[in-house]
Amino acid sequence: MLKFLIRRISVMIFTALVLTFVVFFLTNLPPNLEKLARSEGSVRMTDDAVASWIVENGHGGPLLGRYAEWLGLAPGWTLTDEKGVTRGRCIDVYAEAGSAPTFCGILQGNWGISTFAKEPVGDVLGRSLGATGWLMFWVMMVMVPASLVIGILSGMREGARTDRVLSVFSIASTATPEYVSGVILLAVFASVNAGLSPLLRDWGLLSDRTLFYGTATSAMDKITFWNFALPVMTIALYGIGYISRMTRASMTEVMTQQYIRTARLKGVRFRDVVLRHALRNALIAPFTVIMLQFPWLLNGVVITELLFNYKGFGWTLVQAAGNNDIDLLLGCSVVAVLVVLITQLISDIGYVFLNPRIRLA
Amino acid sequence: MQDALSWGGIILRILQQFLPVWIALIATFALSLRFKRHLGLFGKLFDSPVGMIGLALVLFWVFTALFANMIITMDPIGQFGRTKNPLPGLPLTGVENPPYPYFLLGGDHLARDVFSRMVMGAREVLKIAPFATAFAFMVGVTLGLPAGYFGGKLDTALSFLANLVLAFPVILLFYLLVTPEIRDTGIPVYLAAVLFIFPVIFTCTVLNSRFHTDPPKRNLMIGVTLVIGLWAYSGLAFNLDPLGIWSMGPNLLNVFVSVVFVNAPTVFRIVRGLVLDIKARDYVAAGQTRGESAWYIMLWEILPNARGPLIVDFCLRIGYTTILLGTLGFFGLGVTPESPDWGSTINAGRKLLLLYPHAAIVPALALMSLVLGLNLLADGLREESLKD
Question: Which of A195, A251, B332, B373 is most buried, taking the most CB atoms under 10 A from its CB?
Fold first, then answer.
């Protein structure tokens, strides 16, 4: 087990390094740096001025060297201009030129400065991840129980009417990406002159303009049912379809096993067979699926936060990419890549723990 | 001044606009039901109600894309009248010789007809999604077969690469790959150069492994493939086709390449898994004993026996690619800003979503029904292919 863990984690670290290097390479392509120079300096800079701006701000030099600087494995760049003022990667952060450390990359906890938010990337990421954490928490609270119940109900009697109805529901929900379900939910529940709200207003059941809020911006301060239900449902719907399909497949497979027939034949009630004998074995596969669903949830989070204007991680990622904010985008991708890799690891380890038939050499 | 249409009137007129689609659908279904015993897997699909509904939905959009010119009521990019965001059924006023008297499903914030844009959007989506999926399959199959069959270092290296791409969050990849700046650096062209050569390699290996005992025939077939393949390759990847028949705009190329790039590793993993399962069968051992070449066994023994799961996945994957294209459009990274593809239209409509939902709802429902159709079709195919 230990050997397996060590091997997995070293592959994971290597993957993370390669992926962050790819992001670093793509964000530091010459056209991107020129765009950054023009947005940070001035729009009307000459090509020569752009070139020298790039060099003076530490974006010159070989790519690998700059990547090592960003990681914190190479000394940060410094530059003394003709006025005798020394600037540098580490000096900007720690204000004083003399006492600045030589190394300051993400390994030292310095994620750089966001040019878009004008604050350290670590602060921006911390805040937005906090906001997204709440969103994910409620998504999980809705998605996991709902999809397991649907999957088990439809998988315990394959081909029955319950199974048909629930299967159509889950196929339909996997066919509805977040930007579709979000738009539909907004139109039905949060539109001023379409869907439910005008109807309820006519009946005198509703005093506000709309039933649910159309944005989740207010949820940044205080989460209520009315401002958070729609974004949570938007993300959860897509996942419910997928996870319940997996649970159903695993449940139908378990229900055909010999030991289920034995239990039935010895006279155990159907309910007890499902709850005691089938359920535990049927939940192994969905566990890994739920874990591997995280990367996809990230997509949903980005779309939903943009649609509902909720300033979490996804919103930050979009702003960083749209404004060519290199440090922030790199920070976002480190977080995203780590989330993906760690959930993959947990899913592998969890699978081994849950399934006694798998033994690692 | 005409009155606005009621919902009943709108639905009647829409049904009437779709007349060519209905005729084509009924003809296809009548013919298929008549000859379903001779049509193999496709014919068996008509035994499963779920599969039939899925097929009907998919064919509806395919025919809509084909007959889009006959169905649209107005120019999908043109702006009509002075009213902004006209509601569904509103008459078109203030225009000399209006192309059609009503906005059937309303108009968007630039007074463009939502119905016509939705219909044209089907053509935009179906022009890219199936082909991108097919390319991803070519790449995935060409790399997945040897990885599964030979195993060893090749497998380790290719699997690591596939996992690398899969660990990359899709949205981040799109934001990094589909930008005007990236286009200047030529990275999409390099990616296209790598990805687009796979169909040529694939076809050549398929032919060579089968006909290498008959050199004249083999040389003819491979020669024809190479001429056509490399001609298309030069046009699609580098825009250098001397005759100008094969070409792809830089935006389209960028979108196409990114979608293929995201899909190919998953196909690779599926193919690799299938090969690992099938290569232990007796007929593979028989082929090896006969002294068949490795590529013959992979392409002519293993691949045909893996076709069931691959066809099902192909259907699902077209749906997934449609969703990805919509995502790109939703983030404003689509083909062109005024393109009527569904993702871009949803993106444009979402700004006024709470006041005028129709501009975003119509393409959203269209996209959902196409993907639903593909998923149901895949489900029906899976059910029918498992029966024998």
Answer: A251
